[in-house]
C-alpha cells in the first residue's frame, strides 16, 4: 500500500492538538510470508502486534522517497502503509491511523502518537486531531495552486520534547487559526518550532522575504520547508539551494 509524507501545520507536542499536510513524497510497502528481518523498532512493534492478535507473521519491504529522521512524517507513512497492506491482504478490519498512533507510542518513535501525521499520510489533505484522546477533529483539502519546497536534513539533534509544553497556549492558538487559515498557522508554527529548538532562523526570514507563504521547521526538525504559490518558487529555491539539495513537490488532496 501507499502513503505520503507531510509537513507540519501545527506541532502536537505543546498542546496535543496537531495538524499536518500530506505532500507528494511516497512510501510503498509490501509484505510476504516469513519473518521480519529488519531492525526498525516501529515495524517490529507492528509485526509483533499483528502476530499476537491474529497469528500472522510476515516480512516487510519498503520503498520510500522520504528521507529518514527528517521531520517529514516518514514513520507515520510507513506505519499506516504497512497496516493498510496487512488489512487488505488478510482482510482484517483495523482503524489504521489510530492503531498507527498507538503502536508508534509503544515503539518509542513518537511522543504523542502523531495521529495528525497518520491521518494526512493515509487520507491525504490536511488533518486536525487531538492526539491525547486519539480524536480526529476533521480533515480538509490543502489550498490550491501551491508548491511545497523541502530541504531535507537528517540526524535530528537531541532535544527535550517536554520543553514544548511551556508553549501549550500559544500552539493551541495556532491550532485554532489552522482551522480557517492553515498557511498562516503553518507559518507561525514553523517559526515558533525553529525558535524553540534553537535553529538559525535567518534562512526562514529570507524565505519569507522572497515570497514564501509559509516557511520554517517541519515536525521536530531538522528539515526546513517553504510553501509558495505555483510559479513563484524560483527565488525561494535559490535561498534553499545555498544549504543543500531542494525537493520540489506538491500538496496531496484528500482521496475519495
Automatic annotation (TrEMBL):
Superkingdom: Archaea
Domain GHMP kinase C-terminal: 177-243
Subcellular location per the Swiss-Prot or TrEMBL entry: Cytoplasm
A GO biological-process term: amino acid biosynthetic process
Keyword vocabulary terms for this entry: Amino-acid biosynthesis, Aromatic amino acid biosynthesis, ATP-binding, Cytoplasm, Kinase, Nucleotide-binding, Transferase
Pathway: Metabolic intermediate biosynthesis; chorismate biosynthesis; chorismate from D-erythrose 4-phosphate and phosphoenolpyruvate: step 5/7
SUPFAM superfamilies: GHMP Kinase, C-terminal domain, Ribosomal protein S5 domain 2-like
UniProt key word Amino-acid biosynthesis: yes
Keyword ATP-binding: yes
MF term (GO), any: shikimate kinase activity
Start and end residues of each GHMP kinase N-terminal domain: 42-125
Enzyme class (EC, first level): transferase
Predominant location: cytoplasm
Binding-site list for ATP: 67-77
Family: Belongs to the GHMP kinase family. Archaeal shikimate kinase subfamily.
Name recorded for this polypeptide: Shikimate kinase
Gene designation per UniProt: aroK
